[in-house]
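Researcher: Please predict.
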Amino acid sequence: MKLPIKMWMRTIWTLTAIVVVSAVSVLWWFGAHKAEWEKEGNEAIAEGVADGRSRNCEQCVLLAEKRLPPDAGIMEVVRVQMYLKGCLYVAKGTLPYCQDAPAETDIPKSTAWRLKTYEALGLPAGENAAESPIVIAIQEHCLQVAMAPAPAKQP
């Protein structure tokens, strides 16, 4: 059965209108909550920095593990990642996992490294181990440290 051209055009215009209205609604919603999310992210970083000043990197990871509930939603995950990044930034020492941390763009090596690190941390087994927010934050920290310029030698 062939539909008349007018019916096809009406269908296309209706679908286009639905997509445009949905996109505008999503953009408005994100814009309306942006300031709130930035504030929460900055607070999480500040808490991490405050805790990291008196701890080493391993202790920061343990604190982050305690903060992450097993059924965490996206906002809790982001808060824990921001906290851990702030904590690791100022904490003393280095993490043993950083020695062989691959670039995130090298997906096969990165996934294998994340799984190995996840197991080394003793985190509970799960199907999304390679996407653990704690392991991702550790990898980002390791790569950031590796790319940091070495301090100048004093004569």
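Model: The chain has a mean pLDDT of 85.
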